[in-house]
Structures are given as C-alpha cells and as structure tokens.
Amino acid sequence: GGSTELIVGEGFLPLYMESLYMGCVSMSQRFFPDGEITREGMRRAVLAAQLEFRPVRARIRSLSWQSETGASGTIKAIREIVINEGWSEQGITYQALKRLRKALLAAGHVDRLNLKGLSDERRPVLAGGFAILLAAFEVLKMKRMNVSTGALREGLMLDLLGRMRREDIREATIAAMAQRYQVDTEHAQRVEQLALAFFEQVRSCWGLNEQWQQWLHWAACLHEVGLIIAHSQYHKHGAYLIQHSDMAGFSLGEQARLASLVRGHRRKLNKELWKSQPPQMLYITLLLRLAVLLQRGRSDRLPADLTLDCAPEGISMRFPSGWLEAHPLTRAGLEEERDYLAAAGLRLEFT
Question: Tens digit of pLDDT for each residue in 58-91?
Fold first, then answer.
C-alpha cells in the first residue's frame, strides 16, 4: 500500500527495476479523504500518479516489452471486479478501467460502492489503487494486463525451490553483474578454480560445506567488480557496489555477506568485521586472498603440487622445492600477506 514496483525482465532476469513512492493507501488518504470519490479528486489522483511515472516512462518504453503482468492486492481486486461485472473476459483492459472509473464516480463514496467481486477489506483503498493503475495504463500505453495470482510470498517460495533444484536465480544475478561492470571473467575463473582447489584441501579441517563453497564461488566471480570505478581501493568500491545494488535472489543480509568477502580479499584485514559471522566466513576469505595473490600475474603458471594445511588461527602452504626462489615476486607478495594476516592475529606460513 506504500509503493509501486515496475520491472521489465526476460525469463527470470530483470532488465530494469524501479520502485515509486506511491501506493493505494497513501493515494486514497491524499485524494479521497473520508472515502469521498469526486471527479476532481480522481483527476488530481491520476495526474499525481502520472507525474510519478513520467521520469521512468522513456526508459521503460524503450525496452519494448511484449506482455504486461500485474500482481498483488489492488491489481487482483480490480481483476475480480472487471471480470465479475462482465467488463473483461480475461485480465484487465483499458476499456474495463474506463468503465470502472465511471462506476467509482457514480458511487461517490467507498461505502456506496456496489461492485461484484469487491471485498470489504479492499473497499477503503480501491480508489487510490485504481488511480495508480489507470495512470500506468495511460503513461505506458498499455491495452491489456494479465494478472498473476502470486506475489511476493510465492516469489520467495519459487526462489527457494529453485535453490533446492540447483536452479538458483542468484547465479544469473552474479553473471549479469559481472557483465554489467565489465569483470575480466577469464581471470575471475582462474581465481575461482584455484580458490576451490584450496577449498577441497581444507574443507574437512575447517568444517566447510557446499554452502561455503558457493559463497567462495560468488566472491571469486565478483572480486574485481570495483575496478569499474577505480583501480585504487577497488576492493572497497566492489563491496559498495555489491552492498547497494539490486541483486535479484539475494537478501540484504546475503548482499552484506558477499560485500564483506569482496572487501576482505586484499590489503588490510579487519578481523573485527568477522566477529559476528561464523568462523567459516574468515576461512573462505583467507582462501580467496591466497588465490587472488597467487593469480596476480593473471596466468596459469602455478605448481600443480601446491598443498595447504589449516589450523584455527591460520594456514600453511607448501610449494615444490625451489619454486619460491624462482618466483621472487610471488614470495614477496606472500611475505606482505603474512604481515597483513599477522596484524589481524592470523598466521601464514609458507615453505
């Protein structure tokens, strides 16, 4: 009752999303006080809604969608009315809305509305919701709208079922974000492969399950997303983008977790940030840091027999004999990383 959401998408992928600060409750209170429905009040309500839609009109219409679907309370209520009144055979049409507008004005008050399919619960806020929907039809040049019987709760259930069936919408969100911010996907895959190889070596010691493997995968995919803003402090820029972007399928808490992983993948490591998190968060951050460090040369030239051993407060790495001596830049990077981790109370050993 407090906002109106607009989404243009293809399949499960949202192409454009916008939330407008107007809803059936606020519009009804503002333009139809005490339930009075007047011609002037309706005109002003529709005009106010059109003004809210106007800034997003050009962008939405440029996407050339093929069909419209509405969901949630007001739209479902209006669909019930227009079908039960015989004004539409399926969904909501612009002509049916014009007939409903005439009926609302003829009643003059919400208490005198005698519309088939209208519930007592929806009656007080119908006029405000109707004004928003009529404005949407007129601004976006719609002729007909299909109506979904599901809404937010059903969407959450579909998301959870998809995760159980390995059809997780979050994977598409990660891929879309990497594309949008021009991530070097080949390098991200190299980092991911190395990080997951490390994961397999320490998963039993650190109690890491498939869930943590998935978080490591996502963090590796997006660890350089902040480069789109600047090279300096790009890990901080990346964390900001992840924290504040619209990421379909991710809750705000999940975005915060992913942002923490990206924020912590290089430079100083503030262990305090992980105090409220499970210890596995810190563990996979360490794996990501080491994978990024060893892939700094952006190549596949790494020893196949590199092994890791873990402990609650750190990790040890064993390289083939003479390998570190032959790669002084990698050794220098590991020494710098050892200092970063020591400042956070963690231990890194390498031989």
Answer: 999 899 888 999 988 899 999 999 999 999 998 9
pTM reported for the whole predicted model: 0.71
CATH T-level fold of 167-302: Hypothetical protein af1432 (1.10.3210)
pLDDT of residue 164: 58
Q: What is the pLDDT of residues 97-126, one digit of tens each?
A: 999 999 999 999 999 999 999 999 999 999
Q: What are the residue boundaries of the structural domains of the chain, listed by start?
A: 4-150, 167-302
Q: At what angle do helices 126-139 and 94-107 cross, to 10 degrees?
A: 150
User: Which pLDDT does position 197 carry in this prediction?
Assistant: 94
Nearest residue to 216 (alpha-carbon basis) of 261, 166, 158: 261
Question: How buried is 143 (Cβ within 10 angstroms: 0-12 exposed, 13-18 middle, 19+ buried)?
Answer: exposed
Burial of 254 (0-12, 13-18, 19+ CB in 10 A): middle
Work out the end-to-end distance of the chain between its first and last CA atoms, rounded to an integer number of angstroms.
62
Are 92 and 78 contacting, i.e. CB atoms less than 8 angstroms apart? yes
Superfamily classification of domain 4-150? Exopolyphosphatase. Domain 2 (3.30.420.150)
Q: What is the pLDDT of residues 118-141, one digit of tens each?
A: 999 999 999 999 999 999 999 999
Tell me, yes or no, if the two domains 4-150 and 167-302 fold the same way.
Answer: no
253-274 mean pLDDT: 89
Residue ranges in 108-233 assigned as alpha helix (H): 126-139, 152-164, 169-180, 185-206, 210-222
